Amino acid sequence: MRLFLNNRLRKNLWFAYFVALLVWTVQAYALIGREEQKGRLFAYTEDGHPYISDFVNVYNAAVLSRACSPVPVAIYDVALQSASADKLTAPVKAEQPFYLQTPPYFFSIVSPLASLTMLQAWLTWCGFSLVIFTVVLWFIARPVFSDNFSRCFVIVATIGSFPEWEGVRSGNSSLWLAPGVVAMWLLLRRRSALAACCASVCLIKIQYLPLVGMTGLLLGRFPFVATLFAVTLALVAWAWQTVGLENILAFPKALASAEAGSQMSGVAAIEMQNFRGQLCLLTNSDGSFVHVITLLILFAAIAFVSIMWWRLVKEAQGSNLSSNVILDHKFKICASITTLLLLVCSPHTHKHDFILVVVPAVWLWQTVACNAALPKALRLAARILIVAFPAMSWIFFMIEFLFHMVKIQPFFCWALSLCLVACLALRLKIASAEEHL
Questions:
Q1: How far, in Å, CA of 277 to CA of 410, rounded?
Q2: Cα–Cα distance between 278 and 158 in angstroms, integer?
Q3: 216-237 per-position pLDDT tens digit
Q4: Nearest residue to 78 via CA among 283, 228, 216, 257
Q5: CB-count burial class (<10 Å; 0-12, 13-18, 19+) for 52
Q6: Are 207 and 275 a contacting pair, CB within 8 Å?
Q7: What backbone phi and psi angles, to 5 degrees, belong to 94?
Q8: Using N-to-C axis directions, what is the helix angle for 174-187 and 209-219, rounded to 10°?
Q9: pLDDT tens digits, residue range 145-193?
Q10: d(CA 207, CA 195)
């Protein structure tokens, strides 16, 4: 009788949490609609300061790309970008140039959006990404959870978390990063060439390319690398045709100056949820010391991930990494660690990028949180960190100023904690029988 009551109580609590997340999600996205009705979705002024959405940059990239026909314009020119953006946000004007330092082929990719109004373009940009992401979420949840309620819970918890909401509200390109990376992990063991196509989203957010590329090299081998290289060449050729060779050659300088400069907005290192952001809080600076340490941490992460995957590939001895339960679990733990390191060790990670944590959330739930072969304390830590994230992500956002007062980047600390849990689990015994799951 007690066991029945405990099971019933547990199910009721899960249902209550699901309903709370669902209601919050509906209200949160309804708030975006109300902001649009008030004319505050893309740009507004509050307390004398302008606030401008990331999507203004996306739409501005489309406008500048169209302006390159028939004669290319200098798309990375600060004054040109600023003047074009000011026309889109008028009468609101940025205090500093809201600079866009994405690769030149990004301008080519988003060029069709210029044929729509900015609102229509935002609806298209966000709408398609949400549909695709929902499908990808179903495919990552389906093998792990046997019931539809749990699968729907994963979707609602992910879409309703602050990072995804913030990505939609701002129209950031992270909306496309998440479905691409998740699909890459789903395909990497069986369809490495197709996985590389999905991983090509990292050619837009190139700060994530080193770790993704190294993982693809070790697991997907030649098909992955060759496909990613071919996609890169195709994108560069497309950019050559649309924005011109001069803009392709200007990109490295534009990227370096934007990341290191303080005269432009859009980088905001003090708000980054990674080692760089944490170091900025601790040192009250985003100077050369922080940049050097951040790069050293990235190189260390690349080395760590390379060794981790090399050992797993060696252990598999040519077998597919999904050929048995142990290899499957180790792959998922390694993929979770790699995804978390993508976020905390990247030189440029903001809160909306943390939607990627759906990978470790789902796979560590299966391989660590519900693995009876692991210590109870480790399983409990994994469960608390994973279950709490959808709700805690909003709390992290709402009281971020308090975290900053005590020199803590909350999303970064959460991800680092879960990464340590996953690393400990990888070192301990992995269950080898289905009854332990």
A1: 11
A2: 25
A3: 999 988 999 999 999 999 999 9
A4: 257
A5: buried
A6: no
A7: -65, 145
A8: 10
A9: 988 999 999 999 999 999 999 999 999 989 999 999 999 999 998 899 9
A10: 18
CB neighbour burial string for 411-423, b if at least 16 within 10 angstroms, e if fewer: bbebbbebbebbb
CA neighbours within 13 Å on the CB side: how many for 258? 22
For 43-78, how does the pLDDT look when each residue is reduced to its tens digit (9 = 90+)?
888 877 888 889 999 999 999 999 888 888 888 888
What would the two tokens of residue 416 be? 């680092």
Q: Which residue type, as a one-letter code, is found at position 318?
A: G
Q: Rounded to two decimals, what is the model's pTM?
A: 0.91
Q: Are 64 and 84 in contact (CB under 8 A)?
A: yes
**Locus of tokens 């609806």:** 123
Per residue, the 3-state secondary structure of the chain, as one string, reads CHHHHHHHHHHHHHHHHHHHHHHHHHHHHHHHHHHHHCCCCCEEEECCEEEECHHHHHHHHHHHHHHCCCCCCCCCCHHHHHHHHHHHHCCCCCCCCECCCCCHHHHHHHHHHHHCCHHHHHHHHHHHHHHHHHHHHHHHHCCCCCCHHHHHHHHHHHHCCHHHHHHHHHCCCHHHHHHHHHHHHHHCCCCHHHHHHHHHHHHCCHHHHHHHHHHHHHHCHHHHHHHHHHHHHHHHHHHHHHCCHHHHHHHHHHHHHHHHCCCCECCCHHHCCCHHHHHHHHHCCCCHHHHHHHHHHHHHHHHHHHHHHHHHHHHHCCCCCCCCHHHHHHHHHHHHHHHHHHHHHCCCCCHHHHHHHHHHHHHHHHHHHCCCCCCHHHHHHHHHHHHHHHHHHHHHHHCHHHHHHCCCCHHHHHHHHHHHHHHHHHHCCCCCCHHHC
Residue 285's region, left for phi above 0, alpha for psi from -120 to 50, else beta, is: beta
State in Å, rounded, how far the first CA of the chain is from the last one: 24
Per the CB < 8 A criterion, the answer to whether 43 and 89 are in contact is yes
Cβ-contact 87, 129 below 8 angstroms: no
CA distances to 218, 219, 222, 363 from 311, in Å: 10, 11, 19, 20
List of residues 6+ apart from 374 with CB closer than 8 A: 368, 425, 428, 429, 431
- Give the tokens for residue 11: 């199910």
Q: For helices 2-37 and 148-159, what crossing angle results, to 10°?
A: 40
